Amino acid sequence: MSQSPLFTMDSGIFKYGNTGVFDDLSFSLRAGRFYGLIGPNGSGKSTLIDLLMGIKELSGGRLTYKCRTLNSYRKKDLARHLALVPQQITVGFDYSVYDLVLMGRHPYIPRFSAPTADDVQRVDEALELMDIFHLRKRSVGTLSGGEKQRVIVARALAQATETIMLDEATSSLDIKHTIEIMRVLQRRVKESGVTVLAAIHDLNLAAAFCEELLVLKEGRLYTMGKTDEILSSALLLEVFSVQGAVLKDRAYPRIEYQMHEG
Amino acid sequence: MKAKPLSITFVLFLGLAASIVFATGVGYLPITAGEVIQIIWGRLFADTYPAAINQAFPFVVLDVRLPRILTAVLVGGGLAVAGCVFQAILLNPLADPYTLGISSGAAFGASLALILAIIGITLPFWFSVPLFAFLGAIATLYAVFYLASADTRLSSNTLILSGVILSAILSAGIGFIKYLADEEVSIIIFWLMGSLVGKSWTDVVLVAFLLAPSFLLILYFARDLNIMSLGSKTSDTLGIETARIRKILLVSASLITAACVSVSGIIGFVGLIIPHILRLALGADNRVLLPACFFAGALLLLFADTVTRAFLPSELPIGVLTSLIGGPFFCYIFRQKQLGSVSQ
């Protein structure tokens, strides 16, 4: 494990307007792991993902990707390395499911060129994986919220990047498709060495799939480490202000919240 | 793969070519399509006309009708392309140069150029009018965005409302200039109403000269424009310099609008109707949509202009006609959009 980290954030500062979101944030992510990003609302999860995707820029400090400052990459090059699945997406005009997933191949298809056989194959593969191949000719506007979200995940898979980031991408999906998407991502991590960073609200989902967790609280990295080592009732109370127990009797930790009063 | 959209575009192109020939023949002196083709052919390749053709016809065709018809074609096509770009960038089926106030801004700029002449600064009109129209268009674009910027999603209603407010102020401004410059009243009124009467080859060349490079630039970014419809965050992560391309496209579309307005005045709604209908027929892919918009916009304005020129007892300003047709159509789309069936 002597490989150099994929991402390194060194004393990162990010200000939004006059208020600081991050003040002195440092951590690094290694390739080929499934990371979870957890924290209560407003703790800065989405902002951190935007920074790591190069959508927002640090106001101070340094963020490197593969030992080079992230912002020194051209957007087109970055798009071959990093893919994002946003929380929700508004599709301005009516594209077909197929066309939308094909947009994931944009960074690879030269201007004025048609998609190659490889592009088509990857798109078909992504459609199959997300269980939406039968919908490929439908227009995106006619899909349900959950189907639409699977289209967006398929688009990110078709992008064939080494890193995939998800910004609460499964929060609008039913449990079946949530688990399916997490399984597909897990397989990519294990079989192809892809790195995943997923901001997740559902702590049980994070505990089941993420090898390591980054825990954000009020713009600080509260802690970071192996999922089964850092999840504890103390963390639930201090970060999320809820009472609960962390059960470690299975292959992955489970959380049992204390829901009722008394 | 997309055989149907391409063939529709090709049919539009053929329809436009045929309509140009047909429209050239229509008027006070009827000229047959065959004669029109012979005259154009003779002018371009032979330098003589067949003896059977009336001596007056070449003048009527080449110097009176064709310049006006080609101006209509370029202006109609240009406005439709500009409308398509505004709609695609703003993700808004109600956007077009007219509803956003860009046309009024260009017309205001153009009438300012006349004031310059009155206070003694003499620049040739072929230069000052398009330049001021362009400055007016860009200034209005900025103002619309500034007014709408409090609403970070740039929603339809905010943008259109900003456009309408600015349009009202600018129309009043044009009225004020008209009051200052009473000798030039007729030409300023023409900018408010829109007209293609008396267009010359200078106008054709002027529009073509500004339109061609802007249109090519827009086509160059057509695929990026498709992806930008997923929102700037997503398009950024797909390798598109969204902010930069958006600026380039907005300026190009404004330049096209300014070129159109400086020769024809304000002609509303062409840029609204055409992209909207074609998107329903051809899908949203801008690589197909943009050329199709040019041909269809050209056809629509040529048709409307031919009606006012040849079929109505006295000539109606073309802008009045397009607004009479386009206004109700705007109401229809607005209503559909409020009902949530256009864009979710």
Report on the architecture of this protein.
- The complex is a heterodimer of chains A (262) and B (344).
- Helix content of chain A is 32%, strand content 26%.
- Chain A is α/β, with parallel strands linked by helices.
- In chain A, the strands form three sheets. In chain A, strands 6-7-8-3-9-10 form a six-stranded mixed β-sheet, with helices on both faces.
- The longest helix of chain A has 18 residues, at 175-192.
- The relative contact order of chain B is 0.16.
- Chain B starts with a helix and ends in a 6-residue tail after the last helix.
- Chain B has 14 helices and no strands.
- Chain B has helices at residues 3-25, 33-46, 57-90, 102-118, 125-148, 156-180, 185-193, 201-220, 222-228, 232-237, 242-264, 270-282, 286-311, 318-338.
- The interface between A and B is medium-sized, with 32 and 24 residues.
Helix content of chain A: 25-40%
State the distance separating the first and last CA atoms of chain B: 28 Å
Number of strand segments of chain B: 0
Class from helix and strand fractions of chain A? alpha/beta
Using the alpha-carbon principal axes, give the shape of chain B. globular
- Identify low-pLDDT runs of chain A: none
Distance between the termini of chain A: 47 Å
CATH superfamily of chain B: ABC transporter involved in vitamin B12 uptake, BtuC
Q: Biggest sheet of chain A, strands in spatial order?
A: 6-7-8-3-9-10
Structural class of chain B: mainly alpha
Number of helices of chain A: 9
Computed Rg of chain A: 19 Å
- As residue ranges, the low-confidence spans of chain B are none
The average pLDDT score of chain B comes to 87
Biggest interface, residues from each chain: A-B, 32 and 24 residues
Q: Topology, pairings included?
A:
The complex is a heterodimer of chains A (262) and B (344).
Chain A: E1 7-16, E2 19-29, E3 34-38, H1 45-53, E4 60-65, E5 68-69, H2 75-78, E6 82-85, H3 97-102, H4 117-129, H5 145-158, E7 163-167, H6 175-192, E8 195-199, H7 203-209, E9 212-217, E10 220-226, H8 227-230, H9 233-240, E11 244-247, E12 254-257
Parallel strand pairs in A: 3-8, 3-9, 6-7, 7-8
Antiparallel strand pairs in A: 1-2, 1-4, 4-5, 9-10, 11-12
Chain B: H1 3-25, H2 33-46, H3 57-90, H4 102-118, H5 125-148, H6 156-180, H7 185-193, H8 201-220, H9 222-228, H10 232-237, H11 242-264, H12 270-282, H13 286-311, H14 318-338
Helix pairs in contact in B: 1-2, 1-3, 1-13, 3-8, 3-11, 3-12, 3-13, 4-5, 4-6, 4-11, 5-6, 5-11, 6-7, 8-11, 12-13
